[in-house]
Specification:
Blueprint (H helix, E strand, L loop, with lengths): L2 H29 L8 H19 L2 H12 L6 H18 L3 H24 L2 H22 L5 H9 L5 H14 L1 H10 L14 H14 L7 E5 L5 E5 L2 E6 L6 H19 L16 H15 L3 H14 L9 H9 L12 H20 L7 H13 L25 H17 L5 H7 L3 H10 L9 H9 L6 H13 L1
Parallel strand pairs: 1-3
Antiparallel strand pairs: 2-3
Helix pairs in contact: 1-2, 1-3, 2-5, 3-4, 5-6, 6-7, 10-11, 11-12, 12-17, 13-14, 13-18, 15-16, 17-21
Length: 497
Amino acid sequence: MNIKNAIKNFNELEQLQNAYHYTMGITNFDGNTVAPKNSYKARGLALSVLSGEVYKKFINKEVKELLAFLKENEKELNFLMTKKVDRYIEDYEKTSKIPMNEYIEYTKLQNESNHAWEEAKKNNTYETFAPYIQKMFDTNKRFATYRDNTKKPYDILLDDFEKGMEMKDIDNFFNYLKKEVVPIIKYSVKEYKGIRDDFLTRKFPINKQKELSYILTDILKMDRNNFTIAESEHPFTTGLNNYDVRFTTHYYEDMIASSFYSTMHEAGHAIYGLNHGMELNGSILLGGASNGIHESQSRFYENLIGRSKEFINYIYPTMVKLFPDQLADVTADEFFKAVNKPKTSLIRIEADELTYSLHIMVRYEIERMMFEDDINVKELPAIWNSKYEQYLGITPPNDTKGILQDVHWSFGLIGYFPSYALGSAYASQFIAKMKETVNFNKEMAKGNFTNINKWLKENIQKYGAIYTPKELIQKACNEEFNPKYYCDYLKNKFTSL
């Protein structure tokens, strides 16, 4: 084997794997949006067959030898190819330790589990979904043990979503938030109780909310030829390449802020996917540096932009035109205060910035308990409710608004939740650096996102998965990750609101 042929074989392998993943990505998106309800069984079978083909094409002696040869001769590779090979080797090591039959069965389980979750959430029947939670936790724990039986399984899963992070790191992060932020939560929830927000639950026509979603993406300078917005039970984004990103939102007639901010959040994910370097298209590096970095972009657009006074002042006249009756007696300042009002709430994706991380702590602690304390899934609703009472002082009236509210466990995304809180912290550090060269507030007030988008693209988004989170933060900010930026941002915002 010579290096020229090895590179050719690698490129062909990468193109083939991308084709499989593209097809499976579209199939999953379709299944969660417009596919008929009863199509999940056939879809699950098709996906399990495709995942088996991916396993056989990627996990074999020839591929292992190819990757070893390229690694041995990496001095003859360019920078991008070196990064690709390293990423392939890492993924190969992870996947090859899982038996093929279990790998295929897991894909089928994910599909069935997601369907069970949708039905359970809709009908408030936790008991029908509980067996799938057990299977998901058991399977992920077993897979983690296959990969490395010298580490704690949950640490391995956390590293999958946020490379370099373990429980001790997440604990330190949350302990810092508890010390710095929790005291002002108690004060703010009490002090801002009188802020008017009754108008947020008026009847806002769904067709006008849909129109607003596309207006928001136009303002953010997203090309409608490269993305689409659909509806799903739980908003999500599927980034396939620079020309094909799909995201969803969920519309409620009496919850205008829900679709507004889920659209802004998923648009952030979508913009990240659309702004990867063109040279990454079709490659294993097409994706975020980590889930936390991805969430930093979504939380950036949702909160640092979407909940800012400048942006709301800019978008508000448009909203009044769309909803003249609903907002006739509401000022832009009242709307700004209402969507930022700190309050204890049940639903994570509807939470204000200040209390949001408490929702994440609940999920993180429950996941740890499932891995370390061997609790029974039948106990989870009671544990969930107890922790909501402990952290937020409220108890869910049912499981639909409690333990069934998130889609993540149905897909086996265990270890993902801390990424949301980390993403918010990353975003605060990024904006602090951005403001050194971009007049952020002035640009938002004009609805001009050219320079804001450009900074994020040039410093974060264009690199895809080339760098680890630590490397990317150091490169973008010239310093290591520092949660103080996040705490300072929250303190400054909510002491002046």
